[in-house]
Amino acid sequence: MTPTERDGWPIAEFDPVRRLRVLSATVPGLCLVERIIPASFEDVWNLVSDLEYELPRLGMQFVTDLRITYRDGDELIARVHGPLGIRDDFAITMRPGWCWMEGHALSAAMAATATPDGTLFAWATRMKIPGGRLFAPLSARTLRRTLATLEEHVLARGRSPGVPSR
Fold this sequence. Notes:
By secondary structure, the chain is of the alpha+beta class. The chain has helices at 16-26, 41-48, 51-57, 136-156, and strands at residues 2-6, 9-13, 31-37, 65-72, 75-81, 87-95, 98-102, 106-115, 118-127.
């Protein structure tokens, strides 16, 4: 947290991962998984922010194709295809270290912040259907596998200089 002042009142600003932690504690059914990836923030964020190419490659069972259909600054709209012909349009806010994706049946978010060991990356999802909270254990397993795959993809692009190896 970095304290600042506005109009004489102290303000606490959270890094993107802490912001996502707060949301996961307050949004019902939002499942959050975190992982430290031994690569620079830039390397990690450059990879994951390429939503059209990278999300379908990460092995998530929910996304087989993603196409950006609208872009205005950090606001995007994407048509997402999933298994069995499932389609949804997502409103996306994309900023460095922060991505919130809101569809009709699913909310998802990614957050990243630099650490001395690399990049702390967090991913969260929420099924917005009746009984969606029951999917949380499955979502957690899927997200852990996805973060492992993400780390493999980042490291396959080459180790970042100055980041210690494990």
